[in-house]
Amino acid sequence: DTAVSQTPKYLVTQMGNDKSIKCEQNLGHDTMYWYKQDSKKFLKIMFSYNNKELIINETVPNRFSPKSPDKAHLNLHINSLELGDSAVYFCASSQDDRSNYGYTFGSGTRLTVV
Amino acid sequence: GNSVTQMEGPVTLSEEAFLTINCTYTATGYPSLFWYVQYPGEGLQLLLKATKADDKGSNKGFEATYRKETTSFHLEKGSVQVSDSAVYFCALMTAAGNKLTFGGGTRVLVKP
């Protein structure tokens, strides 16, 4: 059983489109995250939800909207996609938002905007 | 704010060589420190961690010691294998914070 699963794994789309990435965790964790990894492998947090409540929203354009229907799911919707949105997006989860146990990451969604 | 600095790669080694990846941090308070590894095409996996000064984290032959006096958490492995080729990320989380802050990653390439 995959602990943190993201779909799709690859997403190629045109500029201006709207797309969603889904994430689910079966670890019973309370907190979930979205990270963006750019072409130089730099990782930056985008959002964090704890028990369906938004707790981190790092200077991300409002074209990006996370949604957490329950604590096991955190989806990412992106409107009006731009070339600069091309990156690998990682979902992660942790026991809670103060966890010293580290995060469990999904395998990533490679988004390419053409 | 909090930050993590690690040596830029790529680091290219021969099999059985000694590996060191330097990591230093800036943080308020006393953070927990982590090393993550990302194999090609995969997500990040927790490699090891240390939660207080002088703690040593270890896993799969890798070690790192939390050095508060030098604010460092260098990763070492005595004898690398081709399968250790990956990108390695140093990260921290403070007690007051609620997110992992990552360094820029170091690509390691081990040649047979």
Main features:
heterodimer, A: 114 residues, mainly beta, seven-stranded mixed β-sheet, four-stranded antiparallel β-sheet, globular, B: 112 residues, six-stranded mixed β-sheet
Return Rg of chain A in Å.
Answer: 13 Å
**Helix proportion range of chain B:** under 10%
Summarize the helix and strand pattern of chain A as letters: EEEEEEEEEEE
Quick one: overall form of chain B? globular
Intertermini distance of chain B: 41 Å
Output mean pLDDT of chain A: 92
Task: Let me know the number of strands of chain B.
Answer: 12
Name the overall outline of chain A. Answer: globular
The structure class of chain A reads mainly beta
Largest interface: A-B, 27 and 24 residues
Low-confidence stretches of chain B: none
Helical element count of chain A? 0
Q: Specify the oligomeric state.
A: heterodimer
Largest sheet entry of chain A: 7 strands, mixed
Mean pLDDT of chain B: 93
Report on the architecture of this protein.
- The complex is a heterodimer of chains A (114) and B (112).
- In chain A, a hairpin with a 2-residue loop joins strand 5 (43-50) and strand 6 (53-57).
- The N and C termini of chain A lie far apart (34 Å).
- Chain A has strands at 4-7, 10-13, 19-25, 31-37, 43-50, 53-57, 64-70, 73-78, 87-94, 104-105, 109-113.
- In chain A, strands 2, 4, 5, 6, 9, 10 and 11 form a seven-stranded mixed sheet that branches. A four-stranded antiparallel sheet of chain A has the order 1-3-8-7, with no helix packed on it.
- In chain A, 0% of the residues lie in helices and 55% in strands.
- With 114 residues, chain A is mainly beta.
- The model of chain A has no long low-confidence stretch (mean pLDDT 92).
- Chain B is an all-beta fold and 112 residues long.
- In chain B, strands 2, 5, 6, 10, 11 and 12 form a six-stranded mixed sheet that branches. Chain B has a four-stranded antiparallel sheet with strand order 3-9-8-7, with no helix packed on it.
- The mean pLDDT of chain B is 93.
- The N and C termini of chain B lie far apart (41 Å).
- In chain B, strand 10 (86-93) and strand 11 (101-102) form a beta hairpin.
- At the A-B interface, strand 5 and strand 10 of A face strand 5, strand 6, strand 10 and strand 11 of B.
